[in-house]
Amino acid sequence: MFNKIVFSNYYLRKRRDLKKDGKASDQSNLLDTLKENVEKNPFFLKVLGKRKYGGKIMKVVAINGSPRKKWNTATLLEKALEGAASEGAETELIHLYELNFKGCTSCFACKLKDGKSYGKCAMNDELTPVLEKLENADTVILGSPIYLGNSTGEMRSFMERYIFPYLVYSAQPISLYHKDIPVGYIYTMGAQEEHLDFFGFYKVMELNEGIATRIFGYSETMYSTDTYQFDDYSKYVADRFDPAEKAKRREEVFPQDCKKAYDMGIRFVRRQKAIK
Ligand SMILES: Cc1cc2nc3c(=O)[nH]c(=O)nc-3n(C[C@H](O)[C@H](O)[C@H](O)COP(=O)(O)O)c2cc1C
């Protein structure tokens, strides 16, 4: 309804302006103008998109679990956010390694009967405002490199604090999280795709996706393998890798992974729009 009003107001205003300027005033012209505006200025689409869906702006937050702020994981997260933004969402990228925080200390305040922190993490540090922000996000995307067979230590610590408080130690309800949102995982790793099974990565990814589905309602995973690890392979002891092969992969395959991440951003926001 709100959406229709906003659009009709825009339409009427635009028709009036076109008439005033002596330009054609039929609907096809108006739609062309609208299309032109969108092409010239993506912000225009953003504004229109943001006003859709009952006036509520979707908030999409990505969490970077890599210490590197501009490398593989961060790039894929940025792409996912770009996809979400193309659907009108407001986006934010948070770098875990900028924050001073610890993992769960097993205080169990989040499980204490009638406790004031029931269902919430009671620890207070630089992760606390992030967890508060995530409470109301419409989509969350967690990105991490694989370090020694799993997400990074920071990402694991973050997940303990973000997910464990919502997990209930009884049959019903299974989750204390108050709505249904998609939580996506984006992993990057040096290993090649054919070694994922051997290293047990599928199990890791399956487990994390299963937990997120149970707690938040929906989860998806994407991964980028055989990533480019250094800016200049000649400077490092890394004979196992062929620098030319690595560079080729970076040029040919990584952009496809970026597209997958972008599509994930789009898909998640569309999902949320559909269930609103
Ligand atoms: C401490 C450390 C441990 C790593 N362990 C693994 C591993 O077990 N398996 C793997 O495939 N890659 C491993 N890698 C490679 C990274 O996962 C890979 O380069 C990743 O894309 C880096 O992400 P970034 O570019 O966002 O920092 C490791 C890298 C580091 C620094």
Query: In sequence order, what are the helices and strands, one letter per element?
Result: HHHEHEHEHEHEHH
Helix-strand category? alpha/beta
Instruction: Tell me which CATH architecture of the largest domain applies here.
Output: 3-Layer(aba) Sandwich
CATH topology of the largest domain: Rossmann fold
What general outline do the C-alpha atoms trace?
Answer: globular
Mean pLDDT: 86
Strand order of the largest sheet: 2-1-3-4-5
Distance between the termini: 13 Å
Count of DSSP H/I helices: 9
Main sheet summary: 5 strands, parallel
Give your account of this protein's structure.
The chain has a 5-stranded parallel sheet, with helices on both faces. It has 2 domains: 1-56, no CATH class; 57-275, Rossmann fold, CATH 3.40.50.360. With 276 residues, the chain is of the alpha/beta class. The longest helix is centred in the C-terminal third of the chain and has 22 residues, at 254-275. It has helices spanning 2-20, 27-40, 42-51, 72-86, 128-135, 153-163, 201-216, 243-252, 254-275, and strands at residues 59-64, 90-95, 139-145, 181-188, 217-224. The two termini are 13 Å apart. It contains 9 helices and 5 strands; from the N terminus they run αααβαβαβαβαβαα. α4 (72-86) packs across α9.
Quick overview of this protein structure:
By secondary structure, this protein is α/β, with parallel strands linked by helices.
